[in-house]
Amino acid sequence: MTVPTVPTPHFxxxxxxxxxxxxxxxxxDNSCDCLVDDASALAWLRAAGQLSSEVKTPPAGLAELARSxxxxxxxxxxxxxxxxxxxxxxxxxxxxxxxxRRLLAxxxxxxxxxxxxxxxxxxxxxxEPIATAVARLLAEGNLAQVRQCEAHDxxxxxxxxxxxxxxxxxxxxxxxxxxxxxxFRSRKDAH
Length: 191
Hints:
Blueprint: H1 16-21, E1 24-25, E2 32-33, H2 38-47, H3 62-81, H4 89-97, E3 101-106, E4 112-117, H5 123-140, E5 146-148, E6 157-159, H6 172-190
Antiparallel strand pairs: 1-2, 3-4, 5-6
Helix pairs in contact: 2-3, 3-4, 3-5, 4-5
């Protein structure tokens, strides 16, 4: 049995919902998916800062639910940007099943603190912070700032938070530089 190779995730979206959507990227034979199995989905959540080290073993079905959430999030953002209605059922289901527990507790100094804890180690509970990020982006975010990288072979999305609002590339170090070099060569060859 061969262990699938999981690509390195990109965290360039400036928003957790977009970073999650970007867990699948590339085109054609160069397509990559960071959510190939339950272990890789857990690793992505940990790399994204959505998990503490208390969760050691991924729950069964985590990758499948994560891929469903990713597809739903992508379709919802696309629909909202184009003014079409979308179906929030997957997001709402994860929000309901993964809802964190709220409780009043004593801290180390004997003071009361109001806190939220992950409900359990189920797939919905682990994905609830991502579903919340998707819901907040759709309900409270400026979707006009959600952009697709302008590189012809890049599928990554990002939230343009630049002052000018004119960001074109997922990353200047990756696609921006590559596209500028290609444009320079094209101009040079034309002369």
